[in-house]
């Protein structure tokens, strides 16, 4: 349960239909959140019937981890391509083996 105090004035602006609610996730999952508004003057008075919202949670480390894996894969693949190019160039510019047969 996340409780937001009346100090968060962003929630109480009439022209702001959205509010950011702080949340943390350890893994990717879908969470069903219940939203209930209470009066600022009397916290026991509920405004409206409330609602439920489905939220897709994703931890911030997943984006960073995915980026690191992509960078490593690009470096490994790119290193293999560069290695093959250098190997073929070396073969092309190497002198042909001299066949000095003694007979």
Mean pLDDT: 77
Question: Which sheet architecture does the biggest sheet show?
Answer: 2 strands, antiparallel
Query: Number of domains in the coordinates?
Result: 2
Percent in helix: 25-40%
Using only CA atoms, what is the Rg?
Answer: 31 Å
Q: What is the H-and-E element order?
A: EEH
Give the percentage of residues in beta strands: 15-25%
Low-pLDDT regions:
none
SSE-based structural type: alpha+beta
Q: What gap, in angstroms, lies between the N and C termini?
A: 91 Å
The count of helical stretches stands at 1
Please provide a written account of the structure.
- This protein has one helix at residues 60-93, and strands at 29-38, 46-57.
- It is of the alpha+beta class and 103 residues long.
- It has two domains: 9-58, no CATH class; 60-94.
- The chain has a two-stranded antiparallel ribbon.
- The termini are far apart.
Write the layout of secondary structure elements.
Elements: E1 29-38, E2 46-57, H1 60-93
Antiparallel strand pairs: 1-2
Short note summarizing the structure:
With 103 residues, the protein is an alpha+beta fold.
List its salient traits:
103 residues; 33% helix; 1 helix; rod-shaped; alpha+beta
């Amino acid at each position: 349960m996340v409780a937001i105090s009346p100090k968060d004035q962003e929630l109480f602006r009439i022209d702001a239909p959205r509010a950011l609610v702080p949340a943390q996730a350890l893994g990717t999952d879908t969470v069903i959140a219940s939203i209930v508004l209470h009066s600022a003057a009397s916290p026991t008075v509920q405004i409206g019937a409330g609602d439920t919202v489905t939220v897709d949670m994703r931890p911030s480390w997943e984006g960073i981890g995915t980026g690191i894996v992509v960078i490593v894969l690009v470096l490994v693949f790119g290193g293999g391509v560069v290695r093959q190019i250098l190997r073929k160039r070396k073969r092309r510019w190497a002198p042909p083996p001299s066949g000095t047969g003694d007979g």
